[in-house]
Amino acid sequence: MKFLERAFMLVTGAVTAVVIIVMLDLRSHDYYFSDNADGTRKEVYNVKDRGYQRRTLNKLNASREQPEEQTNSLHSSQNSGQREEFLDISTAILKASQKVGLFAQLTSWSTPEEITLADLADIQLQLEDRDAWEKFEFGISNIQLYKQSSKAIRDVLKKMQDLEIVSIEQKEGGTQLKLIITFQDGGQALFKPMRFNRSQETLPDHFYFTDFERHNAEIAAFHLDRLLGFRRAVPVTGRKVNITRDLYSLAEGDLLKTFFISPAGNLCFHGKCSYYCDTSHAICGHPDMLEGSFAAFLPSKSLAPRKAWRNPWRRSYHKRKRAQWELDDQYCDLVKDVYPYNHGRRLLDIIDMAIFDFLMGNMDRHHYETFRAFGNDTFPIHLDHGRGFGKAHHDELTILAPLYQCCLVRKSTVTMLLSYNSGPLPLSSAMRRSLQEDPVSPVLLEPHLQ
Description:
Blueprint: H1 3-14, H2 16-23, E1 31-32, E2 44-46, H3 50-63, H4 68-79, H5 87-106, H6 117-121, H7 132-138, H8 151-162, E3 165-170, E4 179-183, E5 188-193, H9 215-227, E6 236-242, H10 243-248, H11 253-256, E7 260-261, E8 267-269, E9 283-284, E10 289-296, E11 306-310, H12 331-336, H13 346-360, E12 367-371, H14 401-406, E13 408-410, H15 411-422, H16 427-435, H17 446-449
Antiparallel strand pairs: 1-2, 2-13, 3-4, 4-5, 5-10, 6-10, 7-8, 8-9, 11-12
């Protein structure tokens, strides 16, 4: 299914929790407080009607099985610019905000203070005196990787696009080839090369865990994360490199041995990794020009240690086995009893991440990381999106399992989705406009955006 229709379906699914709240007359046990994505007031809707979950799923499945003439009618309506306004949902949110706001005043709830790595490091010098890389790193806070108006992010993107490459090495681990790039000013980025053109989608017989990684998915994911207001994905940009000058001349050891000239006269290499690192899956230039994504490095783990967490909705990564959450409709009840999901913002962050993954079709979310310095009351970092945007015409609804099994969503997230659905600028148009700024535009083909 196309990106615009996917966003419409997501809005429909996300607001079901709000509908139930209105039906239950906003009783106090149907909502509680937790952090918003931007650190503002914690207003959360919690629906405990398990039967409603099944009805929602049945409704979604039924919508995919409607008669062809009804489907065509729906598509023609959407293509004609007619969009569901969800006015009843907007009214429900306003009503809920008023009641929750009153409850917050009665309980003297306060907004958490934003604390950056610079604050924790007790840096005496002003960040203005540091370069763009350090401004980005020390500007990371407990609620976001960067501020909405961050000039440092624009500067980091510009550096990754323009600076001379002085060193490369293959990144250890992982299933596919990635290179650590060092620029002339000492900054570093993770390079994922272009394997095939944008029109090639996930192969029908490939599982999610054997799919190729797409460099343009990394670029698009950064823009999507920023447009959704999460700001939890590292800065990523596209760039074209000269393999002869920027890679081959700097390669050493085992990596250097994998370079060769193809029968077509193109310069190729494949490195060493678990999947697709052999001559038959080589990465080739045209004849030596190659496109790729450059992702800014996070602060070193000596400066800002990170903790890796297993995603509770992790897939089995097995061709026959299924994960527990795929077999148990009440799985969320188990998650809510386990630290750190039994209090604070973490479960809501996981649901935000599921919404983010659904919009790009990313099924490869097995772990996530947080900064140890901020404890557990902080956001999960959105990393590694190379397997997103693989199927423009397919919606993988199971990605939304945290949402429909927990019946839980942030008010700020629902409001954001509604603003794109009913506002003057649809999410697809916002993505199209944002991606035009990238040097390798068009980053996504139209079927992903329409």
